[in-house]
Amino acid sequence: MSENSGTNKFLRIFGIDNQGRKRRDPLNVWVPLISIGLALVVGMIVIAVSGRNPFRAYALLFGDSGLIPGGSAWPREFAELLIKSAMYIATGLAVALAFKGGLFNIGAEGQFWVGAIVATFFGYWSPVAGAFGTMATALGSMAWIAQLLHGAICIILGMFAGGAWAAFAGFLYVKRGVNIVIGTIMLNWIAWFLITNWLVTGPMTPPTQTFTSGTYYVADTAKLFRIMMPTRLNTSIILVLLAAYATWFLLYKTTIGYEIRAIGHTANIGMEAPKAQGINVNRRIVQMMFFSGCLAALGGCFFILGMQYQFPNTATMGYGWTGIGVALIGQSEPIGVVLAGLFIGALRTGATSMQVANIPKTFSNIIEGLAVGFIALQVAVRYYLVKYLQRRRAHADPPAEQEAAA
Amino acid sequence: MKALEVHNISKMFPGNLANDNISFSVEKGEIFAIVGENGAGKSTLMNIIYGIYTPTAGEIYVNEQKARIRSAEDAIQLHMGMVHQEFMLIPRFTVAQNIVVGDEPRKGIFFDYTRAVREVKELSDKVALTVDATAITGDLPVGVQQRVEILKVLRRGAEILIFDEPTAVLTPEETQELFVTMRKLQSQGKTILFISHKLKEVMDIADRIAVLRRGKVQGIVNKKDTNEEELARMMVGRNVVLEIPKVEASVGPVAFSCHDLRVKNARGMETVRDISFDVRGGEIVGIAGVQGNGQDELVNAMIGFTRPTSGSMELNGKSMRLVTTAELRRQGMSYITEDRARRGLVMPYTVRDNSVMGQHLNAPFSRGLRMNYDKIAEFAEGKVREYDIRPGDVLDTAGSLSGGNQQKLILARELSLPHNFLIASQPTRGLDVGATEFVYRKLLEEKKSGKAILLISLELSEILGLSDRILVMFEGHIVGETTPDKTTEEALGLLMLGVGVDRKVVS
Ligand SMILES: Nc1ncnc2c1ncn2[C@@H]1O[C@H](COP(=O)(O)OP(=O)(O)OP(=O)(O)O)[C@@H](O)[C@H]1O
Ligand SMILES: [Mg+2]
Q1: In this structure, what DSSP letter does residue A226 have?
Q2: Which of B283, B222, B203 is CA-nearest to residue B249?
Q3: CA-CA 20 to 30 A from A200: which of A30, A106, B327, B388?
């Protein structure tokens, strides 16, 4: 009974299910889908109660979300959808990776901005930008090589900086026992204030400017390739899909991923099993935070090199926070994160149009919040789903199968 | 009157029929034992009766009425109670708090502690189970904690009590006390279901015994009409002799040694005091002692989980100061833990993934950064066959294995690690007779091949049968060293309780 009920019951409260086999659990797909469905229904009720037409609102929301092809505006909407989603997927992957290791990296926000500012710097800083500028002129029609290299350098350094920022929180956690949530939140604010109150309004602003309008613009060579003229769509979506694949590979194919998941599975019970088997838990946690920070920072690089081309002084927080929702809806699986990121990207893209129906564009945040809320209630959702399946099965025919989770 | 009837219960797990058409009935006031090999389906059956699992087929009658048990709450409503092996008690709470938690007496909206203490005292007088209602639970010996758990179940009105391997964590004395308790409960008309792997215990306490084998009822016998040998034969399907053969091995160099070791526990109390001993290749050194006399802290220090406050340890001649667990394992330390759920296995990981943890960085299990799960599966399949781990699908999660099979998995993993020093901490806890025999054989093979083994066990017969030298631990000290031929179970038992120990040495 010890093994079979005590600990397991405890773990199941956290959504970790010890029972049953390691077969693909259909609930992992149904729980987020049902949560999203519930969120949409509740959203509908909210709209209806406030005296507006929910069907019209949703028609506008999804019609302009870029999800449904057709119409002259569609290419632009589709591009916006992908540009936005790329950033949400990046931060979503960051949070998901840390979740897999049993940690709540609430600092994707800060790591995103650290990545953004570092990418900006190497995008405009004359020793680098100048060198690639010369190179581009020299290469002539092969100038794209210079663009590729300069962009790559900006992204790599940006990711490294974001990774280091996150790894520091990991370091404080393993060496000083600073709770990871507190550590990363603290670093969020430090990053945000350092960047917006100092760097962007001081050392990184062009001196010729009489008003503060953000940093220098990055050189053309630092910009991401545009891939669907005339829209703004750039390579970020491709890069983030590669990052999602890399995250999946890291988690499920490498020794590091094997150890990270073992740590994550036992995080609630002191990680004794991996420790006793000689896994260097502390080192892995710091590494994992590093990778997590890299992913968040990748989103920040997209923000600069694909959209803004400078660090604007109008930037607002939110990409990292959204990443938390994306990771939760995506059940912390890379593929789920990609889908969830696209969904959130679509909501955000279509939301503006809902203003026509007198609905503020922040309405999409309500849907997101609700969906995440229902996911957080996944224990309950799972419980009723299992009950329902059991009842249906009992009606159908008794033997053969068993419930997915006892 | 029949307190409990089970009709044609079956339970299908994916690809595995854990309970196959099981029927029996239990009279009110009876002590009904269920025995069977590891993975025979005992825990599954109990979990069905207690509402944790839903059966695939079959019916349950309580007090001769058809019962609908869909959850543990339903079971409690029907006056059933389960005493969990890993107690669900909160260590910081007092006994009274633990017993009433979830159903507290109140004064207005506030918890009425005085009444809780009074209620617990009344209850414990009524059922004649003595506990100190105001003691801090975490400070009590395991046997007493179990009593607290029993009282908690009784307070909720349990008439049918389910005990799944309650004696696995108890010392022989505590087991005897538990049996006294069980008989008291029986005389008060309570019905008891009892699971154990120790046939001697079953013969001691049960009225009737059901033998399960591979999910089926092999037979139900009256205690009067049977004996241990017959039960073992019914369980395993062959004759089992739990005799430990004498194996001679030439004693090699010192593999592990410690000098004047002192270790503190998590709460800062010094629980290992001035311990010195060594273990040589080709010998088994047994540590006997009542649980909680410093064995856990000693092991924690040995495996690099805690730093000793003073003293030194050496592994193969190298100082272990500041050496990590990973490094110790590379230097040849293997470790079988009794704490399967927390320390031994990553429960949500598959058998495959658990089978190489610790050597997953070695070829062929990984190359560079890349895991080779095909090779790992191959390895795991081999181990599953060699150690007879059931049901045998390497993609099952470790958490879905029965307790005994989890233990075998740990054993398989640790013995296949490159090592020359093995710490075996209660290696047969929860194993059936056949598997216990198997573990003994493996340990003796280890010894024969020149490995050094430190055996920590609460089971005196095990210590006496396997060890070449025996150390007795009491209150953090080693209070005696002897050999199996120079001592008896009784003499060891007394030493373990500190009888005849020079008090000055101890304090
Ligand atoms: N949740 C589960 N999912 C899949 N299989 C399971 C699950 N729980 C138990 N089993 C399987 O059912 C069988 C019976 O297991 P059970 O735990 O009842 O055995 P047991 O008789 O209690 O053994 P032990 O003495 O080792 O505790 C085993 O083969 C086990 O692997
Ligand atoms: Mg069991």
Answers
A1: B
A2: B283
A3: A106
> Ligand 1 within 6 A of B281 CB?
no
Dihedral class, residue B33 (left if φ above 0, else alpha if ψ from -120 to 50, else beta): beta
Q: Are residues B370 and B285 in the same domain?
A: no
Spans of chain A, pLDDT less than 70: 1-26, 209-212, 378-383, 385-387, 389-406
Residue ranges making up the domain that contains B403: 346-417
Alpha-carbon distance of A343 to A362, in angstroms, equals 15
For A166-214, what is each residue's pLDDT tens digit? 999 999 999 999 999 999 999 999 999 999 989 988 888 887 765 567 8
ipTM value, please give it: 0.83
Which residues in chain B have Cβ-Cβ distances shorter than 8 Å to A253? 370-371
Domain boundary among B201, B236, B271: B236
Residue B180 pLDDT: 93
Neighboring chain A residues of B403 at a CB cutoff of 8 Å: 2-4
- In a shared domain, residues B479 and B439: yes
Confidence at residue A284, expressed as pLDDT on a 0 to 100 scale: 96
Alpha helix positions (H), B208-275: 228-236
Distance CA(A187)–CA(A167), nearest Å, equals 11
Give, for ligand 1, the residue of B196, B393, B401 to mutate: max count of ligand atoms closer than 8 Å to Cβ: B401
Task: Domain A84-353: give its CATH architecture.
Answer: Orthogonal Bundle (1.10)
**Token pair for B216:** 């089926």
Q: What is the Å distance from ligand 1's center to B47 Cα?
A: 10
- What pLDDT, in 10s, does the model give residues A362-385? 888 888 888 888 877 766 666 676
- Number of structural domains (chain B) is 3
Is the CB of B427 inside a 6 Å radius of any atom of ligand 1?
no
Question: Dihedrals φ, ψ of A154, to 5°?
Answer: -60, -45
pTM, entire model? 0.85
- How far is the C-alpha of B110 from the C-alpha of B112, rounded, in Å? 6
Long-range pairs of B134-139 with CB within 8 A, sequence gap ≥ 24: B134/B94, B134/B95, B134/B96, B135/B94, B135/B95, B136/B91, B136/B92, B136/B93, B136/B94, B137/B89, B137/B90, B137/B91, B137/B92, B137/B93, B137/B94, B137/B95, B137/B98, B138/B91, B138/B92
Of the candidates A3, A166, A199, the residue with the CA atom closest to the CA atom of residue A95: A166
Torsion of CA A104, A108, A110, A115, to 10 degrees: 140
